[in-house]
Amino acid sequence: MKRSAPRCPVPAEQLPIREYEEMRESWFYSWGARDLRGYALPVVVVWGLSWLISGPIAAVSFSPTHFLNKFLMSAALGALVIPLLTLLQLYVGWSHVGNRLQIRDLPYEESGWYDGQIWTKPDDIFKRDRIIVDYQIKPILLRLRKTFGIMLGCLLFGIASLSVF
């Protein structure tokens, strides 16, 4: 006789698989899971829109009519701040869900902050969650880390070139 698996006591909205599915379908968090063009386009758009803030600030520091190179470089570097923060939020969100999928003993709240419990995932659910992390979430986190590296390289190049111009 086959034994039935115990019912999962974790509320549906606290299940890591549900959090993962919501993030994957979310307008914002789905950026990380898109193809290269679908990922890069929103980042470039956010960077372009960031010029609306960084451009005037750079113009006050370096007059575009007298110091065009320094103006362009400082505005471009300043415009990296908002995309960097945006991608950091993506990284933190995906990392959080990945961590919750990877753990075997899942903490949850039944009805409020004062009644925390821990549910141990059965082997089949634990294995499924680990596969999702390995094949879906880790590539997203790797892509984001590579993007951070590119942005850091741009920042270092820009700072070095500001001192040359």
Automatic annotation (TrEMBL):
Matching entries from PANTHER family are given as: PROTEIN CONSERVED IN THE GREEN LINEAGE AND DIATOMS 27, CHLOROPLASTIC (PTHR34214:SF3), PTHR34214
Name the species this protein comes from.
Leptothoe spongobia TAU-MAC 1115
* This protein's name: CGLD27 family protein
Instruction: State whether keyword Thylakoid applies.
Output: no
Q: Which UniProt keywords apply?
A: Membrane, Transmembrane, Transmembrane helix
Q: Where are the transmembrane segments?
A: 39-59, 71-94, 147-164
Q: InterPro entries annotated for this entry?
A: CGLD27-like (IPR009631)
